[in-house]
Amino acid sequence: MVLGVGIDVVHVDRLRHWRKVDGLYERFFHPEELASALPRGETGILSLAARFAAKEAFGKAIGSGLRHFALRDVAVLNDSHGKPFMVLTGSAEAAFKDFGGTRMVLSMSHEQDNAIAVVIIEGD
User: Fold this and answer.
1) Distance, CA of 29 to CA of 81 (rounded, Å)
2) Tally of domains within the chain
3) Which CATH number goes with the domain that contains 76?
4) Is the CB of residue 106 less than 8 Å from the CB of residue 117?
């Protein structure tokens, strides 16, 4: 059963600006996300924008926005085929379980100026 749906769009320039602020990426992204994205330059910025949209969509899907969990506790990764998935730890995992979530579906896309993500949370 679907418990929550969240969608978010992020303007990529927002992430380009963050690149200039020391420590800001580390505040919002899991180290594994940064290790994957930053070496790819501009393509990596698009990737981070989509991942940030996914984190915000997760917050909307559980109904809390960005309250009640740390953004670094959500890692948006890709499987060997490129399909995105979320790994929740700490406060994000607790928020997901408190919401009654058991499964999650994630889709992301980006093009030039914008990145978008949709999260669907299911429960038993």
Assistant:
1) 22
2) 1
3) 3.90.470.20
4) yes
